[in-house]
Prior knowledge:
Chain A is mainly alpha-helical. Chain A is about 70% helix and about 0% strand. In chain A, α8 (about 185-220) packs parallel to α9 (about 235-240) and α8 (about 185-220) packs antiparallel against α10. The longest helix of chain A has about 35 residues, at about 185-220. By secondary structure, chain B is an alpha/beta fold. Chain B is built from 19 helices and 21 strands. In chain B, a hairpin with a 2-residue loop joins β5 (about 85-90) and β6 (about 95). The interface of A and B includes residues 1, 5, 8, 177 and 196 of A.
Amino acid sequence: MSGPRSAVVGAPTFRPTAGEVLAGVVLVLLLVAALWPNLLAPGDPLATAPADAFQGPSTAHLFGTDESGRDIYTRVVHGASESLLIGVLATAIGIGLAIVLGFVAGLGPRWLDFGTTRVVEVLFAFPGLLLALLFIVVTGPGVLSSTIAVGLATAPGYARIIRSQVRRTASAEFVEAARVLGRGRLWIVARHILPNVTAALFVLATLGLGQAIIWVSSLSYLGLGAVPPAAEWGAMLAAGRTYIANFWWMTFFPGLAIVASAAAATVIGRGIQKRNRSAV
Amino acid sequence: MTEPELTEPTAPVPADPVLNVRDLVVAFPDRRGAGRRGERRVVDGISFHVAAGECVAIVGESGSGKSVTARSIVGLAGESARVSAAELTVAGQDVLTLSGRALRRLRGGTVGLIAQDALVSLDPLRPVGREIGDTLALHTNLGAAARHARTVELLDRVGLPDAALRARQRPGQLSGGQRQRALIASGIAGEPELVIADEPTTALDQPVQAGVLRLLGQLRDDGTAVLLISHDLSVVRGIADRVLVMTDGVVVEEGTPAEVFERPRHAYTRKLVAAVPAGHPRGTPLSGDVPAAVDPAVGPTAGAERRGGRGMTADEATRPTFDDVGTQGDVLLEAAGLARTFHVGGREIVAADDVSFTLRAGRTLGLIGESGSGKSTTARLLLGLERPDAGEVTLLGQPWSQLPEARRRPRRSLVSAVFQDALSSFDPRWSVGAVLADALTHGRTVRPAPVRAQIAELLDTVGLDPALATRRPLHLSGGQRQRVSVARALAADPRVLILDEPVSALDVSVQAQVLDLLDRLQRERNLAYLLITHDLGVALHMSDDLAVLQEGRIVASGPAATVFDDPQHPYARLLRDAAPATFR
């Protein structure tokens, strides 16, 4: 009864690569560190011990100690929650804003699309960090304003992707079929366009998380976000900068945490993207 | 039923055939099933030959192995393919033992290849003349000036007007038919002894198709051996001297077109020939295995009007209950003076101009025309997806096209549609069950559970296994997908169905099943159909009335039986004459 073109049945294999397994482990560690830091490092990240200042990595202090004798391992672990929270929040702000812009441009009347797109393009032309700096100049430094700044700075990039995704879905034949069946505009947006765009967004968000962590750390490093002695990775980098020639571990381990978490998020995001494409 | 076994080719091998194939086997490694080491024989021991001045056609449906056969002849079966044969010679050369270099000389030189889709086969950034010039440079000793002269001569020979100008143009500047002609010119540039044409007309409108076929006929008459690969029996019939019918990698029948098409011996050929809509009167089933009729449990026979004038089958006795299926012939939808013009880059494209017709219950209006004639725009106007610049569509005597969308929406269930590309008309994230649940509940839910029984009933109505509800359309075959889209169209219980090229993406036997299904549903439910198609055979088989569309205007219309006998417009006759010979 059916045609001779038999379809491929069964999902493609989802075997993760070694890199993806490693990235997964890093992400899990990161999550544990963010949610239950005491499981990994029971100490107090702010407890000073001037006698132990500038100790190199050892069994007593895995990552060494800083100028006030605070344990860097404990601080890196406890800093995860702040870095991660700021990263997630910044990404959420960026993507949230981008969804609004992207849908307005993608579904709105022509003039609105034109206006929104031009604004987004101008913003996109600025380097993201410059945009974030501009925002902080206006609002003043601080954790909250640096988070919002990073969110704002990443939004134009996301908005462009979302707009094109929205437009592609909106002109798809199945949307036309839904109109023929008598479905309203809002229904189509809610049932067809949003879910089809969200699938792509999930990948974007994962990739964006890594980027956001780096940017937020950068702002803290410049002294515009979290400030020492807070256990935030960027702030720890800034604190260690003065001593970088003599006490490398003060900058190396927070830096490693930033690189590892950003890389893990990117590897996982790419992995999802790859499989998404082959599956659909 | 036992089939006459085809042991020996019907035609004796001449002394010196241009192409001689004996026991050709093409196998691919079988990737299904992890770890299984096996082979799948796509071509399983076929033998044939083509002599000079002869046109041999291989017909079959997708997956039959016909294209792989053609490609094997020039060593293009693919890297993973294992090709073996007792004999595979082209102009005396054994293809299987040729080196890569010799094979390249063979292709374009001794053998000319004409591929299916000229738009894909020609480099979009290079003038078509260069494409032909390259072939000449590779296979002849002509100088640049002579090559250019020869290029123009070749383009002229294949019937391209203004050949010198065309040679400088890029594929995008040519129409589909012109591109196909340019491709043929490059195929025959090396003065090949054998031309292999793989579905050379599939992407073309019928009048253009006829021109390309005439050209291939000329080549044959000039003494070239032509191997034609096609799924379209009517194309083959007009030109081939001998026909091979292929299915599942074997040749099941061989003979002259008259023998094969009028007295088919093999069951598969009979099925294939019967599936061609052309020449079969309205209402006769095309597929041998007509899918099971409506389940008796669906509903008892309602006070149903029997339709006169057409052959009835037994399954017509049962039909589902409908409160009001209306009387056959009731005017359901009326289009009056529809006009629509698009402005593209400062140019005006008239897609509809004074288009008027009526759709009646239980009757089919066939709308035919070439691509770009405004067929799809007309469909969109009727579906309320596009607003006419002038004119009006009325539905059941009430305004339709003039209504604002919000007021049209409640009545949309009356008019439904089946699209050409079924796959892209489904949300890729939805299962078949979700698609139908959505249609059945008017969008209240996509969860199949609450309406499981109705989904099963719908799938049964269109001849599908209810178990398919859990599958995604992506994992269905083309015919199954189109049945699902028919099921979706029926879910809201419409009175009018707009069928936009519903079968043009399907193989001929699958097409036959879908056409039979549509025919049965029309009789059961007294639906009015607007059937949009570029295929005259399909239109003639399905329609009570026909309208011919050209450049947005209806240039001829009337009862399907007579519209071509007494054409009010020369274009209708042109279309008829251009159509392959089967149904003249």
